[in-house]
Amino acid sequence: MKNITLILFFLFGGISSAFAQLIGFEDGVPETFKVSGKGDAKVSSLFYKEGENSLEWDFHPGSTLDVQINPLSLNAKKEQQFGITLWIYNEKPQQDSIRFEFLNKAGEVSYWFSYHLKAAGWRACWISFAYMQGNKKDKNIVGYRLVAPGRKGRVFLDRLIFPEKKMNLRTTPDQQLPANNGLSNRDLWHWCLVWKWEQQSYDIPLATKLTDKRKKELKTIEQRLTDFLEVKKAPQGQINAAYKTFEKAAITPSAAGTGFVGTPIVAPDEQNKKKGEMSWNDIETMLAGFAYDYLCNQNEASKKNYFTVFDYAIDQGFAFGSGMGTNHHYGYQIRKIYTTAWLMRDAIYKHPHRDAYLSTLRFWAALQETRQPCSPTRDELLDSWHTLLMAKFVSAMMFPDAREQEQALSGLSRWLSSSLRYTSGTIGGIKVDGTTFHHGGFYPGYTTGVLATVGEFIAFTNGTSFELTEEARQHIKSAFIAMRNYCNLYEWGIGISGRHPFGGKMGSDDIEAFANIALSGDLSGQGNAFDRNLAADYLRLVHGKDTPNARFFKKEGVKAAQAPQGFFVYNYGSAGIFRRADWMVTLKGYTTDVWGAEIYAKDNRYGRYQSYGSVQIMGKGNPVSRAGSGFVQEGWDWNRLPGTTTIHLPFELLDSPLKGTTMARSKENFSGSTSLDGKNGMFAMKLMERDYENFTPDFVARKSVFCFDNRMVCLGTGITNSNTEYPTETTLFQTKYNGKDSKVGDDGYWLHDGYDNYYHVVDGAVRSQVAEQESRHEKTRAVTKGKFSSAWIAHGKAPKDGTYEYMILIQPSSSDLEELRKTLPYKVLQRDQTAHVVYDKGTGITGYAAFETYQSANDKVVASIPAETMVMVAQESDKSIRLSVCDPNLNIEEKTYTTKEPSRPIRKEICLKGRWTLKSPMENVTLRQQGENTVLTVICQHGQPVEMLMENK
Questions:
Q1: pLDDT, tens digit (0-9, with 9 covering 90-100), for 882-899
Q2: What is the DSSP-derived secondary structure letter of residue 423?
Q3: Burial class (CB in 10 A: 0-12, 13-18, 19+), 183
Q4: Any idea which of 1-10, 415-424, 637-646, 828-837 has the lowest mean pLDDT?
């Protein structure tokens, strides 16, 4: 039973002492509520959204429901933050509205809005003062009133809070309040755009009559979808969960003769689980479980329950035209509603409430968005693809009229194809380098599931008029290839893990999607019946499992691909991936456009250092994995991600200083990777720490990693900060101890991480240990323990211009190790604040990380390189060289959480000694002679290396 409760919210500076009232109408009508004119206000148990009662307002034309409040003084800030929230039950759809008016001391209306009554059932009424109408001149409010429509009737009110002092920022516009949130004018908050999209119309005409070909294609797609979703055996656990949840829901027809009473269903933001309130996931649990029971066991009681739940959900607000106050992230909680609705479609079509069910499914699938092509500035696409693409597909296929089915599926295919364009800036979607963006950054953790759902759509529509365009499939293929490259076998490195440092991997559905896109046609340009390269990747990823697609590809002579080999540049994530044999190295930095880590209130609390120049080797396990390579959370020292240069803090200081989300970006732009001939590469960054609580804002360093064959040369200069309390260090390795000694012979400057990787320190005070470590869980902060082998270079407290140099040998043979311990395979040509330059003897490559303008009298090829540029050069023949130039800076003008502003071209001039020409003309490269030298002008964009072959005249 709820009571009239007064809740004192936190008082911001200057806010008056007015109370926010949470009113549930359990103990009668509050004295502050009065009816003016004909009508009545009374407590009713006919309908309720909380407790067991609501306020029934019986009105006549011209009557009002007047509410007296403690005086409320607003200003511009409070207009945004303050508002009113309640739920209103309307028994019959009407074409009129209730007007809410907020009055000043003189009884004049300062603010008002209209709440439309076009739907029956419970609907939310959430709105801040900022989005109300009125002259708003007098911001001192002493009361408010509800003005009746020009007819006789009644409504029921419940869950009333006024003033709500912290309006939900993702309040969702809907049929009742279409203008209650300005965020609907933005592309970021895609969840709350469902009503805005509902105003769109198809520009694809409805066919008068379908051709036989189209009819056959639709039947083919229907069968493919049915085969995919069909359940062979009743999932008893899900059926039991449905009955258990149904019992808690306590759904009962209302004594009013229409509608229901029962456990309230609200959005998670509003849900009080302690009171037993339910949300979308509970609807999903009941609908899915009852559907399975009816379909597998022919249980008629479950069929009846299925439709009772669906009716109740609509009555509670999960309905066409309803935003339920806020609907953000609902897609993650409703997916099985759609997959089981498809299986129940015959029963749905025969039900008298068919149209209500289908309109609800279409609306919450956001199918209405697909009436037009996808907006090029549409953000957060990964969420939509992952959670709602199947919902959209099912909804499109569930039009009883095949002509409407054809129109909807055509629109969906076009929308998906257009959404798979390479997106600009940092908005969500696929970037030109194959990285996939979510939350304004490169995010593999949100890419899994996306590959699966898009791959499923490709499989369903393959060979029909509804298949994706070839361009769209090429773009999604680039995302598949990128994930193949940055995963080993299924998992990615901690540096690119977002807020899940030890979690996330490719799932079986993502792997199956490799086969689906391979079978959609040869995207390699070789003219085969299917893409044999993707098929080979698929066979590698299924890892020997016997699947129908694996059998088919093997029959066609396809052999499993080897693990990716080479160096892969992903500067939309300020990252590089270095691979040979079965090992993988993830290199990671951050810039003004690329955040370093995503830290939430209950996720990744200690992940600050993920992008401080991390160099993580994953090369052990069957299959290769993080844990198999020595990376586990229990006992992990969050200060010591390999490769990073960090200030070693106690966990309470390393914990994010912000209660909510931290996504720190650098103030530097030089961080990222480049490659030469796709085989070898390098990484460089200007490291700087931000000015946050418990950070050290003058902490800077210049770091580089040069990657050749199975060798990495790691350099650091200018390591400086003023933190006198805690030491600065560069971590060589931290791995779960497996019994192997970290020392190599008697030389304290050769170390072994226990996983067949060797480290030789040339410059730096080496420290190593094998120790039982106590740490904290990244979500719960609970104590964790584990035994680790670790090594690091100690720079001391408050270092000034600290340096380091070390080499890593990745899984060398015993003979290689013996040889390389005698003679270093590289030469450092320069290592200072201006540049890091390394020559590798084995490959003949020279790598340049020019932090400032580099000039050299002794260099045989390069005379000068502009600041913040990476160059790699190798001799191809006596008179030719292979050269790559890269500025990893995305050069995006707008610096914000997410922006559609594009990566802008950057002009670089490199001066080469001698007279050189290009072997083949290039649009983004021009040459001019300057005396005996050649000035090479290169246009860099998207952080991508520009590679060329040059000949010496």
A1: 999 999 999 999 999 999
A2: P
A3: middle
A4: 1-10
The CATH number given to 568-952 is: 2.70.98.10
| 716 φ, ψ (degrees, to nearest 5) | -145, 140
Asked whether the CA dihedral 208, 213, 214, 216 is positive or negative, the reply is: positive
Backbone angles phi, psi at 503, to 5 degrees: -130, 170
Name the catalytic one among 446, 606, 612, 848: 446
Angle at 897 between CA 430 and CA 723, to 5 degrees: 115
Is 158 annotated to bind ligand? yes
Q: Is 386 a catalytic residue?
A: no
Residue 105 in this model has a pLDDT that exceeds 80: yes
Q: At what angle do helices 354-364 and 300-316 cross, to 10 degrees?
A: 60
Query: Under 8 Å CB-to-CB from 488, ≥6 apart: which residues?
Result: 563, 579, 582, 583, 584, 618, 619, 624, 625
22-167: which CATH architecture? Sandwich (2.60)
* Antiparallel, parallel or unpaired: β 97-103 and 109-116: antiparallel
Supply the DSSP string of 840-909, one letter for each residue: ETTT-EEEEEESS-EE-SS-SSEEEE-SSEEEEEEEEETTEEEEEEE-----BS--SSS--PPBPPEEEE
Predicted confidence at residue 367, as pLDDT, reads 98
Is residue 439 flagged as an active site residue? yes
184-199+231-365 folds as Glycosyltransferase (1.50.10)
Q: Is 292 one of the annotated active-site residues of the chain?
A: no
State pLDDT tens for residues 321-370. Answer: 999 999 999 999 999 999 999 999 999 999 999 999 999 999 999 999 99
Residue 179 — φ and ψ, nearest 5°?
Answer: -125, 40
Structure tokens at 619: 């090369």
Q: Which of 60, 329, 351, 777 is catalytic?
A: 329
User: Hey, do 184-199+231-365 and 373-564 end up sharing a CATH topology, with the first three levels equal?
Assistant: yes
Task: Write the pLDDT tens digit of every residue in 825-853.
Answer: 999 999 999 999 999 999 999 999 999 99
Which whole number is the average pLDDT over 226-237? 96
Q: Tell me: is residue 729 an annotated ligand-binding position.
A: no
Q: Which two tokens stand for residue 335?
A: 């997916």
Q: Which of 116, 190, 328, 439 is catalytic?
A: 439
Q: How many CB atoms lie within 10 A of CB 844?
A: 14
The rounded distance, in Å, linking the Cα atoms of 529 and 534 is: 12
The structure's pTM equals 0.95
Q: Please compute the mean of the pLDDT values over residues 551-573 and round it to a whole number.
A: 98
CB 417 within 8 A of CB 469: yes
Q: Are 637 and 736 contacting, i.e. CB atoms less than 8 angstroms apart?
A: no
Element holding 307 (H helix, E strand): helix 300-316
Q: Give the residues across from 599 on adjacent strands.
A: 662
Side-chain-facing half-sphere of 780: CA atoms under 13 Å:
6
Task: Say which CATH class 373-564 falls into.
Answer: mainly alpha
- Helix %, strand %, coil % of the chain (to 5): 25, 30, 40
Q: What are phi and psi of 481, to 5 degrees?
A: -65, -40
Token digits for 92? 């019959």
By CB atoms closer than 10 A (0-12, 13-18, 19+), residue 267 is buried
Mean pLDDT of 618-629: 98
Quote the CA–CA distance of 906 and 887 in Å, as a whole number. Answer: 8
Instruction: Please tell me the total number of residues recorded for the chain in this structure.
Output: 953
Q: How far is CA 405 from CA 206, 393, 400, 417, in A?
A: 10, 10, 7, 18
pLDDT at 195 over 80: yes
The domain limits of the chain are 22-167, 184-199+231-365, 373-564, 568-952
Stretch 483-497: mean pLDDT, rounded?
98
Q: Which helix (H) or strand (E) holds 205?
A: none
Q: Which amino acid is at 357?
A: Y
Checking if the pLDDT of 12 tops 50, the result is no
